[in-house]
Amino acid sequence: MGISERKEREKQRRIKEIVDAAEKVFFSKGFKNATMEEIAEKAELSKGTLYLYFSSKDHLYGQIMKRSCKILFDRFEDAAAQRKLGADKVDAIGDAYYLFYLEEQDYFNVMINFESKHLSEEDFVAMKTEENCNPHAVLIDSIITGIKDGSIREDVKPVETALILWSFTTGLLQMTSQKKDLLEKGYNMQIDGIIAQACNILDYGIRK
């Protein structure tokens, strides 16, 4: 391995360590309350050295957003690969999203709290072009597959439908999380039952 390769390897190792440190700080304190000083301390670096790699909290937040998307992308791909028909792939993706919500609360919250101002233009472009960071693409492809194999209606528009399914499910997960006590104790509803009913409604809306 040449000198340039070793330098690049060391750079990538340092970047990973910084993002790992930033992740811990963001998860424990939230984006708003986290500071670059705390991230530098967690990474065992000087603040000046930290700024050599990342120009702002926004830049670092974008890196963690990319991690969230990659984890969700992998879950979506694995789920879709287990089914043959497109409509069944969409169902499996919905189940995978719910499990992501249950098992990866910190990453889920990163995605939910994400706003464009939290992401540098450089990272935004990278996320748009990196296929392995785009879980929406898996959902869109599954809808297209369903239209072709006849399990999803022909009048369904893949991109718009993927956005609707994503928005509906995300909003439902947020609502049931925030209103859990009221729903369970006040209305005697079970969260899993609400999610299952919602999935049935969505499924009915797209299947042929």
Structure report:
With 208 residues, the chain is an all-alpha fold. Helix content is 77%, strand content 0%. It contains 11 helices and no strands. α9 runs antiparallel to α11.
Topology:
Elements: H1 3-29, H2 36-42, H3 47-53, H4 57-81, H5 86-103, H6 105-113, H7 121-129, H8 135-149, H9 158-178, H10 180-186, H11 191-206
Helix pairs in contact: 1-2, 1-4, 4-5, 4-6, 4-7, 4-8, 5-8, 8-9, 9-11
Summary?
The protein has 208 residues and is mainly α. The chain is 77% helix and 0% strand. It has two domains: 1-54, Arc Repressor Mutant, subunit A, CATH 1.10.10; 62-206, Orthogonal Bundle (Tetracycline Repressor, domain 2).
Key features?
single chain; 208 residues; mainly alpha; Arc Repressor Mutant, subunit A; Tetracycline Repressor, domain 2; 11 helices; 77% helix
End-to-end separation? 57 Å
The CATH class of the largest domain, by name, is Mainly Alpha
Number of strands: 0
Percent helix: over 70%
Question: What is the mean pLDDT?
Answer: 89
Order of helices and strands: HHHHHHHHHHH
For the record, the count of structural domains works out to 2
Model regions low in confidence, pLDDT < 50 over at least 5 residues: none
Q: How does the helix and strand content classify structurally?
A: mainly alpha
Q: In this structure, how is the largest beta sheet organized?
A: none
- The dominant shape is flat
- Helix tally equals 11
- Computed Rg: 20 Å
Beta-strand percentage? Answer: under 5%
